[in-house]
Structure formats: C-alpha cells, structure tokens
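FAQ: What does the model actually see?

It sees only this:
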Amino acid sequence: MPAIEVKGLSKEFKVLKRKAGLKGALKGLFSRSYKTVRAVHDVNFTVKEGEFVGIIGPNGAGKSTAIKMLTGILLPSGGDIKCLGYNPFKQRKEYVKNIGVVFGQRTQLWWDLPTQDSFELLREIFEIPDGVYKRNMARFRKVLGIGNYMLTPVRKLSLGEKMRCELAASLIHNPKMIFLDEPTIGLDVDAKYRIREFLKEKNREGITIVLTTHDMGDIEELCPRTIIIDKGTVIYDGPTDKIRKKMSAEKFIKVDYAEKAPKFALSKGIKAKEVIGNQVTYAIDTRKAGVSDFIKKIFTKYGIEDIDIEEPSVEELIRRIYTEGIR
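And it is asked to produce this:
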C-alpha cells in the first residue's frame, strides 16, 4: 500500500467580493456576491513508503492547500486521498496519531510555557510510554541540540531554536510520516544544517517525508523526487536531478555599466533579459556559451561598475518548465 495516494484532488474556496469605498462597504451589508477561487485542481500523485518528496511552486500555487488536505486540516472539494490507509479528514483522530506536521509560520508549542512543558503535554496527548519518551528526548537533545533551552519559554526562543523544537515535537510520538511546510524559512546556516541532517537520518529509518519549500537548497540536498505545482496543477513529477541540471544550465548575470548600457551582438545562448537604465541582466545558457568568456569580453570592451551572477529563482524555473518542459 502506498503511503500517499491522491486522485483528482481539488479544492475551491468561496471568497466574498468586496467593493471599494464606504459606499461599497454599506452595499455589502445588504447585498453580497461571491467568487469561486480554485486553489488545487485535478492533482494526482502517489508516494511510496519511505520516500522523501519535495513539493515546490510559486506563492499561491496551491502547495500549502494541498498539504492541509493531506494532513486532514481541510476537506477537499473533490477527488480522493488515502494516507497510510486513512481518509485524512474523515478519519482524522486515528490518522493524526501516525503523522507529524511542521508549519514554518505556525507553532504547535505553547507560547508562554517552558519548552519542556510543551513536550510533556504532547507526551500526554499522544499517550507516549515513558521509555519511548525518554529515548526520543535524549536523541533530540543530542542531534538537534535543544537541551540548553528546555526551560526557556517558547516566546523567548530564536527562530532557529524554535524550529528545532517544532521538529522534535512533530516526531516525539514516532510517526510513520511527516509533513514539513517551509521548515527552514529564515534559518541560519547552522540551524539549516542540523535540521537537514536530522531529516536525512529519520528518512533512512523508513519515515516517509513530504517537504514544501521555496528553498531549492533544501530540495537539492534532501529530495530525490520533486513535484512542481503551479496554479493548483502538477506540472512536473520526477527526479530532482533533472531540475538540478536545468538550473545549472542557466545563469543570470546582472551587469551595472559605468555609462549607458551598450548594445552589441550577443553570442548564441546569451540573451539580454532585462534593461533598467545602466543595468542589464543577461541570461546565459551554459550549454551554448561560456560565462567566463562573456564576462571577460564585456570587461575588456566596456566600463563596468558592478557584476553579479545569480541562479534562476524557483518562480523563473517553474515558468521555464511550464513553457519549455524539462529536457
């Protein structure tokens, strides 16, 4: 049995149409109209037990909505979901005993209580045996480094400290599967490293992990498989390596010229993507043109004040995959 099986999943929201100004607000008190917003449409995928799958997409693509349906928080408008053999929404009480969830911008810890008290409360909620609880807490202290602030109220923790505790809280009851929604957002390098290494270890132990993020570093480091969602629909489901190759094949070079941006013939594989005053952003397909050769050429011929080399953003990557596919 797959860990997750999704068929024809969709979610629509009814949103109130508001009119601007005081007059519009007064009209809204007596006559209301609504519009239907489709957040997820006809999504299909299967996740095997023990897989580590990344879900990416631009803001508003439907990633978080999909995760909320997979965790039983939202009821789908259509389609079928089976997670660990359960219907997440209809069998939520039995289902949530088997999963862990981390939402990067929401907490499952009690804000004003010491961190230790939050773990004790979760222990009672999940009815965790003493031996299991002690072993898990000892491991979290060692691997995630949370021992130094167990007596600190959650509200006084730094973002990195809080996220380590959130991750521990999601795993304290030994779930079979965990869902992570932006778990490394805003974290420093050390916190990201600890969390990534810990997740790799848990996945090696057989836990199924589904990760949504805007950080392509997380995806490349952790997820052999990636699902890309755009406008509520899956546009790619396959090996992360293919996405990595497409990302590494293109570079953006932002050049600030000392004077007005010059116009000159560009070699094959190089395009002037954007011109703003003296600044030009060039897109270079490294399969057809050399970055160093191009930089050497413009430095030799023109006055340059600044130059910056960038990787394409997730949004740009998705746009290109949507229009060109992955080759």
